């Protein structure tokens, strides 16, 4: 499949427990490639299990996957804040497909899936300059907010206000 063809065929849907093994394998590979060199090998996304994902969903967080021809190729987690903002994280794309528009397609899918959200926010590690750049190309701006992830790195918050039309 050509570059971009994966993104065009992406199906964005809620994850099921059957997706968790593939989702976690992609997450570990993606974080291992990009984040471990910046933050070390003991990042929270590398320690997650199917059971910990079940606990997240039980606490109200939602997990979504992007699939192409039925195979999980990307995932993310999100929660709807009391003000309606969609706050997401752990956007992970299969490293073999990075650079083919899959991450961008996931961003567009989140925005399309939640049409009444007034804004979208995410966090990424303070040293993850490549990620900051990617998100900024899609309208996300650094807010100046930072916080320490429990047992993880210091992160920066990025936010995007909804425009009249998303999609």
Write down the secondary-structure element order: HEHHHHEEEHEHEE
Radius of gyration: 15 Å
CATH superfamily grouping of the domain at 5-118 = Gcn5-related N-acetyltransferase (GNAT)
Count the strands? Answer: 7
Structure characterization notes:
It is a single chain. The chain is of the alpha+beta class. The protein has helices spanning 5-8, 20-34, 36-39, 44-47, 50-58, 102-113, 129-136, and strands spanning 11-14, 62-68, 71-80, 86-93, 119-125, 141-148, 154-161. It has a domain at 5-118: 3-Layer(aba) Sandwich (Aminopeptidase), CATH 3.40.630. A seven-stranded mixed β-sheet has the order 1-2-3-4-5-7-6, with helices on both faces. It starts with a helix and ends in a 6-residue tail after the last strand.
List keywords for this structure.
167 residues, seven-stranded mixed sheet, Aminopeptidase, alpha+beta, 7 helices
Topology, please?
Elements: H1 5-8, E1 11-14, H2 20-34, H3 36-39, H4 44-47, H5 50-58, E2 62-68, E3 71-80, E4 86-93, H6 102-113, E5 119-125, H7 129-136, E6 141-148, E7 154-161
Give the structure's gist in a few sentences:
This protein has 167 residues and is of the alpha+beta class. It has helices at residues 5-8, 20-34, 36-39, 44-47, 50-58, 102-113, 129-136; strands at residues 11-14, 62-68, 71-80, 86-93, 119-125, 141-148, 154-161.
